[in-house]
Amino acid sequence: MRTLFFLLRKEFLQILRNKLIIRMIFAIPVVQLIILPNAASYEMKNINMSVVDHDHSEYSRQLINKFTSSGYFQLTNVSETYKDALVFVEEDKADLIIEIPQGFERDLIRDNKSKTMIVANAINGQASGLSVSYANSIIQDFNNDVRIAWIQPPRVNPQPMIEITTSNWFNLKMNYKYFMVPGVLVLLVTLVGFLLTALNIVKEKEDGTIEQLNVSPIKKYQFILGKLVPFWILGNIVLSIGFGISYIVYGIFPVGNPVLIYLFAAIYLIALLGFGLLVSTFAETQQQAMFISYFFMTVFILLSGLFAPIENMPHWARILAYMNPVSYFIDVMRMIVLKGSGFTDILPNLGIISLFAIAFNTLAILNYKKTV
Amino acid sequence: MKQLLTFIKKEFHHILRDKRSMLVLLGLPIVQLLIFGFAITTETRNCNIAILDNSKDGATQNIITRIESSTYFDIDRTLSSNDQIEIAFKTGRIKLAIVFQPNFQNDLLHTNKTQMQIITDASDPNQANTLANYVSAIVMDYQQELNQNKDFPYTINTEIRMLYNPQLKGEYSSVPGVMGMILLLISAMMTSISIVKEKELGTMEVLLVSPMKPSIVILSKVIPYFIVSLINVITILLISDFVFGIPIQGSFILLSLITIIYIVCSLALGILISTVTSSQQAAMIISLMGLMLPVVMLSGYAFPISSMPMILQIISNIVPAKWYIIMIKDVMIKGIGLFEIWQELLIIIGMTTFFLIISIKRFKVRLQ
């Protein structure tokens, strides 16, 4: 016990001595948590639209007005020909072209049928899909207005109609930040904890100080524990600061019990740091440790379910995601913070992350050889 | 010149000796691209849903069968009461619940009007919207079949044309995105670490007191990583052509020119990081933690920049990856020429010069 205590004191001194790193460990997550969730939104705003109006009629003007007053679209210019409008798309000044053909109004009234065309820059498939569906619903709306103006609505529906009401649970305002902030916080805690531990033992190797530790009567598990505890505490501090920020900046307070989050985080950090230490015992230089952690971090982040839901992934990727500790924490975080899930709901995740913790740390202890 | 060559050789030996790092450096772009191309998709598949059917008649059965047979949904469970809905959501398994009111078919056929409710798990608002739209579309389909042979008056038909990427493949934005991210991160990280390492180990002083000019020392550090980055670019382009079927539409020479300038810019950023830090840990934290998330989120390939708040739109301008991704999309996918992208190119060149000037200034200070 006394040995462990001395080891811990040494680690803390080493961490606290390096002011630059301490500052970065806290400053980077704080700044990123304040900035990044604001960027992460799939809600489309200010879609730049170029209009080609061949009709110049009352209806075409009304339709264009409907677009500009919707709040989603910004009229960048009105072009004479489709070709002119296309130039704007090529130069990235417009994302969308609406073409209204000649006789739009006349055809609609006389022939009951008319046409419009939406042309979208689809390089970003998802964003363009969304903007087209916005545009489409605006045209449908306009269409309905016209119909109502021309037809007296009958009292009873002429055709069978199914009315669909949608309720959005757990995030009534459909605020994307509520979804992103807990996830980004998990990533930041993960980055801090993982990177620092991954570099730690290697640094001792590179500096040669590990040999001094090796010849001392310190046991392997004491050594690993001595490395683990300080970063475990740091991780929890970063997490707490993160919660403070999400409350102050975004007004997010966990619906469920915060103690549960800390319980899960406690075990998650053991697992994560164990993995960091494993990388550290495995690598020979800090550079190597860094590249290996870079590799795992990218894969972990991409397959964490933060940017795209895991259940949408193909089978092989889902298996990889299930081997990714980060995905479990993000899942639990969202369950507790947004849905207010209880202990029994997160129990499966808790069990799996405990297995991770045991496996990684055992491997780290086994892989740390006291001989060089 | 001969000195430089010997130095570059030395650096190459350093890199090649470390097989694991090599593997990561060359393998990561491939892994990342494959994950992005195949795994990161917002296309919904096999989403777990629950159904509460209070009516259990022909109409609801018909709709349920349609939902079941679509590739979007898997019916995870059938509920029997309202209280079960919340439980089903809280255990985290289902993303959407559908509730049919009693007498669904009866109302539909006799009063021509009936109701159903969709409840979504809006913790992910985006997915919630998409899923609700899918269900609506399936129900509308059913309704339209009931209403066959009836024409709606005053109909505006909308023709939709998707330019450049008619199948709305995600790879069209992820290939440029991965290029922008990988090149910046790897170049900045590698150069900063390898320079700081010499500082930390004390070998930098040895190099600086040698008759070599400091610029040659730095140059010899940078060139090997420049070559590694070029290899990465070639693998990415090959994968995007042969695996994803996205050939280069524009001029290959222009594409290479832009990419080389961008790599130089990233290397310059790495040199800058190395001048402000003195330990490998610090360099790594700056280049990895400081660059990774901002580049992913603010470069415009994960989330559209025009939808961000004004202040972030301004901040995004200092992310070099943003400008590079714009140019790559223009040249690779739209196939347009230098004339349209010279502004972006100038910005990148400007950034590079800026990084270099600051580095040189800082570097001299350190020598005293």
Task: Summarize the helices and strands and which ones pair or pack.
The complex is a heterodimer of chains A (372) and B (368).
Chain A: H1 2-17, H2 19-39, E1 47-53, H3 58-68, E2 73-79, H4 82-90, E3 96-100, H5 104-110, E4 113-121, H6 125-150, E5 161-169, H7 176-207, H8 209-215, H9 220-250, H10 258-282, H11 286-302, H12 315-322, H13 325-339, H14 343-367
Parallel strand pairs in A: 1-2, 1-3
Antiparallel strand pairs in A: 3-4
Helix pairs in contact in A: 1-9, 2-7, 2-9, 3-6, 7-9, 7-10, 7-11, 7-13, 9-10, 10-11, 10-13, 10-14, 13-14
Chain B: H1 2-17, H2 19-39, E1 47-53, H3 58-69, E2 73-79, H4 83-90, E3 96-100, H5 104-110, E4 113-121, H6 125-146, E5 155-163, H7 171-201, H8 203-209, H9 214-242, H10 252-276, H11 280-298, H12 310-315, H13 320-334, H14 338-367
Parallel strand pairs in B: 1-2, 1-3
Antiparallel strand pairs in B: 3-4
Helix pairs in contact in B: 1-9, 2-7, 2-9, 3-6, 7-9, 7-10, 7-11, 7-13, 9-10, 10-13, 10-14, 13-14
